[in-house]
Every structure is written in structure tokens, then in C-alpha cells.
Amino acid sequence: xxxxxxxxxxxxxxxxxxxxxxxxTDVLVIGAGIAGLFSALEAAKTSNVTLISKDKLEMSNTxxxxxxxxxxxxxxxxxxxxxxDTIKTGCGLCNKKIVELVISKGPELIGxxxxxxxxxxxxxxGSVSTTLEAGHSKSRVAHAHGDSTGKWIAGALIDRxxxxxxxxxxxxxxxxxxxxxxxxxxxxxxxxxxKFGREIIWAPSTIxxxxxxxxxxxxxxxxxxxxxxxxxxxxxxxxVLRDMEFMQxxxxxxxxxxxxxxxxxxxxxxxxxxxxxxxxxxxxFDYNSxxxxxxxxxxxxxxxEQMRKTDSTHVYLDVRHFEDGHFQKRFPFIGEICKSFDIxxxxxxxxxxxxxxxxxxxxxxxxxxxTNLAGLWACGEVASTGLHGANRLASNSLLEGLVFGKIAAxxxxxxxxxxxxxxxxxxIFYNVKRSSxxxxxxxxxxxxxxxxxWRNVGITRAQESLSECSExxxxxxxxxxxxxxxxxxxxxxxxxxxxxxxxxxxxxQRLESRGVHHxxxxxxxxxxxxxxxxxxxxxxxx
Length: 542
Ligand SMILES: Cc1cc2nc3c(=O)[nH]c(=O)nc-3n(C[C@H](O)[C@H](O)[C@H](O)COP(=O)(O)OP(=O)(O)OC[C@H]3O[C@@H](n4cnc5c(N)ncnc54)[C@H](O)[C@@H]3O)c2cc1C
Hints:
Layout: E1 15-16, E2 21-24, E3 27-30, H1 34-43, E4 49-52, H2 61-64, E5 69-70, H3 79-89, H4 96-115, E6 130-131, E7 141-142, H5 149-162, E8 167-170, E9 173-180, E10 186-193, E11 197-202, E12 205-208, H6 229-237, E13 241-242, E14 247-254, H7 266-270, E15 274-276, H8 284-287, H9 296-309, E16 315-318, H10 326-330, H11 332-340, E17 350-359, E18 362-364, E19 376-378, E20 383-384, H12 396-415, H13 418-423, E21 429-430, H14 442-456, H15 463-480, H16 488-509, E22 535-536
Parallel strand pairs: 2-11, 3-4, 3-12, 4-8, 12-19, 18-20
Antiparallel strand pairs: 1-21, 5-7, 6-7, 9-10, 10-11, 13-18, 13-22, 14-17, 15-16, 16-17
């Protein structure tokens, strides 16, 4: 089957800036995870800010983060050690300058989170309590209410956001496309409000903080919002995407057929949980000398291999040896989830398997969180900053969102000057060519795409299955990308198809195994593998 790539549209919907309702703001923030919330609060110190989220403010990957946020908080730890751990895990692709920047800002920003009201767990002496996670040489992961860190960080930031006089927040506002002028300057967004319909938000400075793309996979820890919208809209607007072959899979998510894949945090293994196969055999040391504390990609692949060897759909986490009461105290959220499935972790094994978890690739940014489009900054999971390289060190992503959220805000505020303001509110018109091709059911395409990505662009990949994946996506694209939708389901399906193809193509270009990208047909690291980073730009922008 050979399928021609459909014409790449600039916008998913018709644009008519004259007849559409309009909002004006100094700084527009798209997304309400840690990156969006923190950047909005920072920018609002001096500017008017509008923050939009496609769902409720509480619906984000950030909200579901469990284990914690990594930072140097103890005397026996140093910035250098955290930098080294990050670089070692990143398998040769980290940008050292960015790693140093992010890690060195950590302690100060954890202090800011505390000041904004995040209730981190504390030691008796009042210092922030930390734990160890895989890949970290020191205990440095701060957590809140045991295993509900994200909820308590986001909750505090949302409280501050709601009371801030300079912030206008709009929930259930779906950003469809970034608006750009003929010089590729970003001027804001065209979107759709659940109640008020189509609206344009004009802004001299836009911060993209739309998170990741885990929903592209059948098995994922991510909530439904993570459909890669921000990456897709940035790509359509002419932004460079980078490292899209690197999707990180989390080794341990609860496996109960029919139930959603709830994450079983890394911290469990950090605090002594072991992995057993269906015969009760502790197998991790057969694969890596660090056992259960090996980096995530190794643990994920080892679990997959052990499942294959034992012809089983899952393996088990064993915490039965934890001191009485410790599990309930440290992991109350997971405790509740287990209880709801009649699993008593003190007595029973917890069935687990890997799932898609974190998108390492994204919109390419520099040390100022700046993209290649004037007026557009990106931060958090949507961005590719160079911090994670080819594999993310556990609990470094919340930290990255925090650090680059602040950096993006400071730069966006500086840009919102009179000259930049004079560029917005231009007349922009775009008409989507109507197509008479057959319609596909987008719900069906979405589900089939997720199954395809899991099978063909999953924990291990190879040329044949990757090119087959591209062909199937291109086929679906012909019948979905030519349509005009009027609700988020359709736009999400178009975004998912766009991003899935870019991921499959990037995975075909990297002819080696590195970090989370494992090719069965190129199983080794190849230091001569060039280019070092795979960058993707829409062809008519080259
Ligand atoms: C279950 C789970 C556990 C995790 N545990 C940890 C952990 O312990 N430590 C750690 O460091 N990391 C952890 N991570 C990863 C971390 O949570 C994320 O990388 C991080 O929270 C991403 O933050 P963000 O601000 O970039 O995006 P998100 O928090 O995902 O927020 C994205 C926002 O963008 C909005 N949005 C998306 N598309 C649109 C659109 N089209 N229009 C308008 N709004 C849109 C969404 O509504 C949402 O508000 C975990 C992730 C998951 C899923």
C-alpha cells in the first residue's frame, strides 16, 4: 500500500478575524499544568494575563503526578550530583547548559512553591522530606501528601491563580490553532469555548504549555487531555519539533483488564518494592545490576521480555515486606486504588505492566524557552528543552515545567511592549478547501490509532512495523485531515494523527537504540548516528 501524504493545512478551521469574537491580552498562556499555572502567576506580577485550558483547571498531567519533584534539598547532595544523574540517564543527548540551568534553579523554586502554599511533606525539624527514585544517586524527591504531589502543587497554584486580579482564566476553551502573520510571528490563538463558540485571543506574547501526548497510546498513565494538541498546532504554524521518537514508558502501571492504567509510582521501588514474574521469581537482576532501581527504559523492556518468557500479560509489584503501616502512610492514593480492586498490598501482589507516560520530544526551545516563531514561548512537557536527552530522570519533569514556566513568563512580559502590541489584531482570513471524500468515524480512528501506536511505535520498534504504521496513518489522514470539524473530538483526532505520523517518521530516522528509543533491528547505541537530534519542520517552511 503506498499512500500519498495529504496536503498539510495551515489551520484546521476557517479563520476570519473580522467577524469572530475577540479578546485582547498582554500574555496568553495555553494550558493549566505546572508550566502554565506557574508562568501565568509570574507574568501576572506585571502584566495582564489570560490563561485557557481545554477542560477544568484540575484536569492535567500535573494533577496526577504522584512521586514528587526532584531537587537538591539535603546537605549530602549537590547540584553537580543531580546534574550528573540527569546526564547519565539522558544517554548522551542532554544539553549540559540546560541541565545545569534547570537543576541549579530547583531549590529556590521549591521554596517559591512552599510560599505559594504547596503542602510538601516535612520532617520533624521542618525541612522538606525527600525520597529516593530510580536513577538518582541521592534522596532528593520532594513529595506532598505521600503520593499526591501533583494535586497539591497544582491545587495551590490554582488557588493563587483564581484570586489574582491580573489573571483572566477561561476553562473549557479549546485552542485550535496559533494565529501567525505573514512573517511567522505568533499573534495569539483561535479557539472554541464550550458555551460561547469560536473566539480569537490576540496577544503579543503567547506561552504554549499544553503538556504531552500519552493518549496516542492504548496503554497510558495520562489523562484524556494529553492528545498532543500544542505540538500539532505549533507544527502547523511553522515551529520546529525535536526528538519526537522519544516517548518514555513507565514500567509499572496497575494492570487490571478494563480499568484505567493507574501509575504505581517509581518511589515504591525507590523504597524497596520488588518485581516478581508470574512464577514469583524476582527477575530484574537477570537484566541489570541495579535491579529494580535501573532506569525506566531498562525496567520497562525487562518486564516486557519477562512477560514474553512467562507467556503472561503482566508482572507483579511486591510490597508485602514493607514495615507495618509504611505503605498506607507514604502511598495513601495508591492504597485507595488497590483497595477499590480488593488488593491488600500488605498481603497481595499488585499486577503491573508498562504504559506510555512522558513525551520527551516536543517544540524546540532555547534557554529562554523561546521557539523559532517570534512571539511564541513553550514550556513543560510540550517543549523539547534538551534537559532529558534520550531518557528522562524520574521527577525531573515537574521541575522543568517550573523552571521554564518562570523563564518563559519573564521573556513574554518583556516582549509585550507597545511595538509588539501594535502587530496584533490584523486581518487574517483562511478558507479550508471543502472535500467530498468519505467520512471516517473519528472515535474509531482514535481507538485504532492508539492500538497501532502501542503495537508499532511502542517500547521496542523496527523498520517494518514503523513503516507499516506510517502508511496506515497516512491512509487515515486522507479521510480525516481534509474535513472541517466543529468540536474537540475532531480537532484532537486530527492533532493525534499529525503527531503520530511525526513520531513514527522520527523513529524510522534514528537507526540505533538510545534511551527510551529501542530498535530491535538496531539494538546498539551508535555514537556515529547522525544527526544527533531529529528535527521536524513542515515542508513548506523549510
Ligand atoms: C500519572 C502521572 C504521574 C506523574 N508523576 C510525576 C512525578 O511524580 N514527578 C514528575 O516530575 N513528573 C511526573 N509526571 C509527569 C508530569 O506530571 C508532567 O510531565 C507535567 O505535569 C506536565 O506539566 P505541563 O504543565 O507541561 O502539562 P499538563 O500538566 O499536562 O497540563 C497541560 C494543560 O494544557 C491544557 N491543554 C492541552 N491542550 C489544550 C488545547 N488544545 N487547548 C487548551 N488547553 C489545552 C490542558 O487542559 C492542561 O491544562 C507524571 C505524569 C503522570 C501522567
